[in-house]
Design brief:
This protein has one domain: 2-Layer Sandwich (Yope Regulator, Chain: A), CATH 3.30.1460. The chain is 37% helix and 34% strand. The chain has 4 helices and 6 strands. Strand 3 and strand 4 form a beta hairpin. The relative contact order is 0.19. This is Molecular chaperone Tir.
Length: 131
C-alpha cells in the first residue's frame, strides 16, 4: 500500500464523503455524498495519479448531437470532463490529479466541480439518458 492511500482517505473523510467501499489491495475507494448528488464515485490511487471517476448515465443509442453537446460542455467544466467507457455506451465524469503533490484543496476542487456539474446540468443529463 502506498503512502498516498491513507492521505487520500483522510482527505475524503475531512471533506465529509461517505466511504461506502474501500479496497486496500487496489488502493481505491467508492464514495458518496448524497447532498451533492454524488453516488458510487470511484477514487483510485494509481500512482503516479489519482483517478476520480463515476458513471453518469448510459447511452441508449449513438447520437452525434449528444456527443457534440457533451464536448461543448467539457469546455465549461472547471475540473474533470465527460468521457466514454471502453464500450462507448456509458458516459462518465473523470478527472486525474498528480498524487505526489496532492493536497486536500485539489481533491475538493474536483469533487466540487462534479457537484456543480450535476446541479447545473442535471436536466440535460436526464434527457440524454432517455434518448
Amino acid at each position: 500500500m502506498s503512502t498516498y492511500y491513507n492521505k487520500v482517505k483522510d482527505y475524503l473523510l475531512n471533506l465529509e464523503y461517505n466511504i461506502i467501499k474501500e479496497d486496500k489491495a487496489e488502493e481505491l475507494f467508492v464514495v458518496e455524498n448524497p447532498d451533492g448528488g454524488i453516488a458510487n464515485l470511484i477514487v483510485d490511487c494509481e500512482d503516479p495519479v489519482l483517478i476520480v471517476e463515476g458513471v453518469l448515465f448510459e447511452l441508449k443509442s449513438e447520437n452525434p448531437e449528444i456527443y457534440k453537446a457533451l464536448l461543448k460542455k467539457n469546455r465549461e467544466i472547471i475540473h474533470g470532463a465527460f468521457v466514454l467507457d471502453e464500450s462507448g455506451k456509458k458516459v462518465l465524469f473523470r478527472d486525474t490529479l498528480q498524487l505526489e503533490n496532492l493536497d486536500q484543496n485539489e481533491l475538493e476542487a474536483t469533487l466540487n466541480s462534479l457537484e456543480m456539474l450535476l446541479s447545473e446540468y442535471s436536466e440535460e443529463i436526464i434527457t440524454y439518458s432517455k434518448l
